[in-house]
Amino acid sequence: MQGVLYAVRGEEADARRVLDDARVADPGHYRALTNLGNLDMEAGRFAEAEAIYREVLRIDPEYDGGHHNLGVALRRQGRVAEGVKSIRQGQRLAMKRSKDDTDAEMKERFATNPVMKNMRWVVLGVLALIIFLALRGGG
Asked: Could you tell me the pTM of the whole model?
């Protein structure tokens, strides 16, 4: 967060130092690495940003933001088709993550809400009653 704050204030050297320190402390910190790539993008160093975003995706191939940023870096270098492909991959991953988050939230709501938790028993009871009445009426 401190690195992002420095970047927002236009203090690139301080931002880069803090983000580099975060990478040393945690080599798998793909978000710090992403922000380093963002610094290169802002400075117009698109090939350098591309290399960093590719490293981000090596660490976390499912990171939608990495695919999107790579696509932007590629487009800024005139590699439009390649860039669009990467941006679309980022969009697909973002949609998948959103769906997964929604599914997890719904499961949590069902698990914590006593009415919803017992709803399946009500539904099963109604189905059993319908089957019972159908069999009794047909006999």
From this structure: 0.71
Say which residues have a Cβ less than 8 Å from residue 126's Cβ, sequence separation at least 6: none
Residues of the domain holding 16: 2-103
pLDDT at 95 over 70: yes
Q: What CATH number has the domain bearing residue 83?
A: 1.25.40.10
* Cα separations in angstroms, 6 against 17, 18, 38: 10, 9, 13
Q: Please write the tens of the pLDDT for every residue from 25-82.
A: 998 889 999 999 999 999 999 999 999 999 999 999 999 999 999 999 999 999 999 9
Helix (H, G, I), strand (E, B) or coil at 125: helix
> Is the CB of residue 18 less than 8 Å from the CB of residue 6?
yes
By residue count, the chain amounts to 139
